[in-house]
Amino acid sequence: MIDMSISNLVKLLKDVFLNPRTDHDIIDIFIIGGGINGCGIARDAAGRGLIVELAEMNDLASATSSASTKLFHGGLRYLEYWKLRLVREALLERETLLRAMPHISWPMRFILPYHKDMRFEGDTPTSKLLSILMPWMKGRRPAWLIRFGLLLYDNLGGRHILKGTTALKLSGTPEGEPLYDHFEKAYEYSDCWIEDSRLVVLNARDAEARGARINVRTRVISAKQVDGIWHITLQNSQNHDRRIVRAKLLVNAGGPWVEDIIRKTVRINTHEGVRLVRGSHIITHKLYNHDKCYFFQGEDGRIAFTIPYETDFTLIGTTDVDHNDLNIKPICTPEEQNYLIEFVSKYLKVQISNKDILSTYSGVRPLYNDGDSTAAAATRDYVLKMDTSTGAPLLNIFGGKITTYRKLAETALEKIATVFPKAAKPWTAGAALPGGDFPVDGVVEITQKLISNYKFLTTPWATRLIKAYGTEAFKLLGNAKTKEDLGQSFGATLTAQEVIWLVEKEYARTAEDIIWRRSKLGLRLTPPEITFLDKWMECKFAGVASGTII
Fold this sequence. Notes:
The structure is a single chain. This protein is α+β, with helices and mostly antiparallel strands. The chain has three domains: 25-64 and 198-273 and 380-430, 3-Layer(bba) Sandwich (FAD/NAD(P)-binding domain), CATH 3.50.50; 105-192 and 275-368, D-Amino Acid Oxidase, subunit A, domain 2 (D-Amino Acid Oxidase, Chain A, domain 2); 443-545, Helicase, Ruva Protein, domain 3 (Orthogonal Bundle), CATH 1.10.8.870. It has 16 helices and 20 strands. The chain has helices spanning 6-17, 36-47, 84-100, 125-133, 143-155, 196-209, 258-265, 334-345, 405-416, 443-453, 459-469, 473-477, 496-506, 511-518, 527-540, 542-545; strands at residues 26-32, 52-55, 71-72, 105-114, 166-169, 185-194, 213-215, 218-226, 229-236, 242-252, 274-285, 293-297, 303-309, 313-317, 321-322, 357-368, 382-387, 394-399, 489-491, 494-495. Helix 2 packs parallel to helix 6, helix 2 (36-47) packs across helix 9 and helix 10 (443-453) packs across helix 11 (459-469). It is globular.
């Protein structure tokens, strides 16, 4: 059954007349993996005039890319490992990304409380050097060293938007009020928030707008090289239909599955691999009454953040635990929950327990296996390897972090350009993502404009829409004059009109896609409301769900 709504008819006509490619054509690049690296590369490549197709076996951002700590940051603690290039590249990217997506990313201030017993992770280069130069410190962190690290952090990448580091006296301040009284001093520095799963979806949408073909819930069964061309067999995960795509170059952006794809899908022997490290988070009710984050340092040298989250909640994370079996779904284990609770309870006066945990999430970070002995020490840098052993080029993507996804894509295109020398030059640094075409400091103004145009919106509702869709919120609401014009209400300001937008324009297929990856409304909707939404979508979008509409 085909849903021939106006929007789907328009899409069909565009596909026929603007993208007349057939399944018998040979495309330039096929990408396996719909996380941030795959979608970032698809966007960059499509914008350079290359013919691109991508397949994701589940929903976009359904694994690592929706389970981050949701920060664009340089990685302050990586300075202890002397990873200056990695930190500098990430710091430079923060403001580039802010300008491109001010609806889903914004500056945040971080409070780093100081006390005399702060210690280094024992195996960092900085720790080893201090043990020689200052053995009487016994691993403790001197205040001057933390200040020096923050001075580097402020200046390695340059700043035009973000504020620099300041020293704080905590006594009698809003920042000090949640903390135990023996924390008298702190440093405050800047990093950025990012709606990670929306970042992935917006990159996919922009890639599609530039000619790429995006397939969700589509598994790559095999990829074989035949006479210098990749023959990739795809299977729709819902109706099990199969088809073959032929491509000149294959990109393996499988994230945690990157090594499996090399060995089992492409069937190449390799010594390259990833170290799978699980990072878990817990969510509680709001723990303090200001909008700044805390950067807590443990006696074991680990760190944890507490971050104001979705207005009424606090996000706490993360852990670093080896995760050796991809067949086991990552979860925040009871041990990890207890670890995070005990960690923050050494700083915060308000004591929390497992009963205060409203939700948890966990993701597996595919870190390039550089042989480091601990999960915390494993490199967060990315490594790209071009393999031509089969005759057709294969680009494997190892590691990376969300802050440097755009630079990773540019680096990937540098390697890809050896196969396609006529591809256009780099372009993404100055290009806004869908909905991000307004100033970095323009959220309040555009929110007020939305309320003025749609007087039935409450301020929280309008703010949510702007921070999800930016300028496209006006397109989403269309000609609505009342909230009833938006159709069925599912609770927590989610309406049928928004759900239809998410299905038709943002690849959503299930309630889970919508309430956890296109939004975080799963924190507010009740189980019966979620069940109703899922059933409503099954009836409304039967054609999409079965794979009839691609």
